[in-house]
Amino acid sequence: MSYEINQKLTKILDQIIERNPGEKEFHQAVHEVLGSLGPVISKHPEYADDAIIERLCEPERQIVFRIPWIDDKGTVQINRGFRVQFNSALGPYKGGLRFHPSVNISIIKFLGFEQIFKNALTEMAIGGGKGGSDFNPRDRSEKEIMRFCQSFMSELYRHIGENTDVPAGDIGVGGREIGYLFGQYKRLTNRYESGVITGKGIPYGGSRSRIEATGYGAVYFLERMLSTKNQSLEQRRAIVSGSGNVAIYTIQKLTALGAKVIACSDSNGYIIDEAGIDLNLVQEIKEKERGRISQYADKKGNSVKYIQNGSIWDIPCEIAMPSATQNELTNKDARTLIKNGLIALGEGANMPCTPKAVELLQEANVLFAPGKAANAGGVATSALEMQQNASRESWTFEETEIRLSKIMHNIHDRCYETAEQYGLPGNYVSGANIAGFLRITDAMRALGII
Ligand code: NDP
Predict the structure, then answer these.
(1) Which end of the chain has fewer CB atoms surrounding its CB within 10 Å, N or C?
(2) From residue 384, how far is each of 119, 310, 380, 390 by CA, in Å?
(3) How far apart are CA 306 and CA 263, in angstroms?
(4) Are 411 and 381 in contact (CB under 8 A)?
(5) Which of 221, 230, 214 lies closest to 406, judged by CA?
(6) Counting atoms of ligand 1 from 1, which one is nearest the CA of 248?
(7) Atom 2 of ligand 1 has which residue's CA nearest to it?
């Protein structure tokens, strides 16, 4: 069970909770990882020496800043900006920026903490960090978005750099925002430093297949996981929550590999299209018009159901890929999914399943792919973008996608094998946490007490 935790680790967790009061998402993420480390510490007690676990759970640096900007009416608005530079033992801090009204230090720390392990699993030279703002991009004009991004970067630029800290996108930060952020960075520094941010557009140093990478990567992981049980995606009934970057390319790859995706959502509700989701229409509504998923039902007519609020996980399916946000799939949802015959779940989002939901799914022998492994394709392709920027090359889509699929298969196999090695066959949560932990702490131990 992923949440069994030995005495030494319990004490460390208690101290972390006490030192970081009220940060419930951060506590949850740390609890999940420490809950997997018992077998490692029993076998190799030296991995708890020199307060290495405590150091791993304490960010190297946390930056919180004011973002003043002027809206279209001429009113001054104030938002709060964050960058948590969590761990740089393996490389420059790397992790996205999230713009969403729910953003606070707890959410950024949980994401940054997860990112350390995710990045370690890619075996690339990237440390862990995360940032963002409580800015709500919804219903803001193009010019407001631009002014906000410029103000955000006017502070952030002094803390980042291609060898220091390399942000990217996340919820609410896509190609448009990355363009404005990079533009302002370039202007302030007078340097064309492409490798300072990833998720860029192709004309100014972006990598082909970066947009698709998180969703595609999550499906490659899931496919590999199914293959360990001699199963495939062919003809499988699937549900993907969200309708943003990760969800869209998850739907695309699932469909390409033979599954039938019948539902997706946004924060207002979900649609069910038994004929299979028409991805072009979703993209037109969500990417081009920046509209709501309810418009899909308006455009398609009676064959499509739109359900406001409610849980998308009430729909019977064999494959579930939560790809919206943290804690969106609860224990109640897990029970419903299990009852309805779920065979595999891949987390496209970060920590979308509550701890109790994960426990129930694992107990029911549902194949479960944790986000920090399954959604690592995005950051891995960001690292490929940094490689291309450093060598001033631009690879083809095929070349990047082949690399992505290999990386995802390697991550899968490492999680699978590590779980077996520690006597927890099929437990990808433990496999991912232990494999990530060993790589980071080996580097941290070598670098001394810093
Ligand atoms: P987007 O902003 O492109 O899309 C987010 C989607 O999730 C939207 O459909 C949004 O609905 C929905 N959503 C957001 N917040 C909530 C909420 N509180 N409740 C219900 N629905 C919500 O983000 P991404 O697709 O990039 O990110 C999705 C998840 O994947 C996040 O957890 C992110 O951390 C993770 N991730 C992203 C990576 C990437 O490369 N982009 C890499 C690895 C992980 P609405 O339109 O109504 O806001």
Answers:
(1) C
(2) 13, 39, 6, 10
(3) 10
(4) no
(5) 221
(6) 25
(7) 171
Atom index in ligand 1 nearest the CA of residue 247 equals 25
> How much is the average pLDDT of 361-388?
98
Q: Please give the distance, rounded to the nearest whole angstrom, from the Cα atom of residue 240 to the centre of ligand 1.
A: 12
Amino acid at 323: S
Among 130, 186, 200, 286, the active-site one is 130
DSSP 37: -
pTM: 0.97
**pLDDT, the chain, mean:** 97
How far is it, in rounded angstroms, from Cα 86 to Cα 383?
Answer: 17
Q: Are 440 and 117 in contact (CB under 8 A)?
A: yes
The closest-lying atom of ligand 1 relative to the alpha carbon of residue 350 is 32
Burial classification of residue 230, based on how many CB atoms lie within 10 Å of its CB (0-12 exposed, 13-18 middle, 19 or more buried): exposed
DSSP code for 267? S
Is the pLDDT at 16 greater than 50? The verdict is yes
Q: Is the four-CA dihedral 296, 297, 301, 302 of positive or negative sign? A: positive
pLDDT for 6 equals 82
Task: Check if the beta carbon of residue 36 is closer than 8 Å to that of residue 2.
Answer: yes
Closest CA to 371 of 117, 132, 172, 130: 117
Q: Which residues line ligand 1 (CB under 6 A)?
A: 169-172, 174, 214, 242-247, 266-268, 323-325, 328, 348-350, 375, 378
Instruction: Give the containing element (helix H, strand E) for 409.
Output: helix 397-421
237 by DSSP, 3-state: which?
strand
Polymer length of the chain = 450
At 310, give phi and psi (nearest 5°). Answer: 65, 175
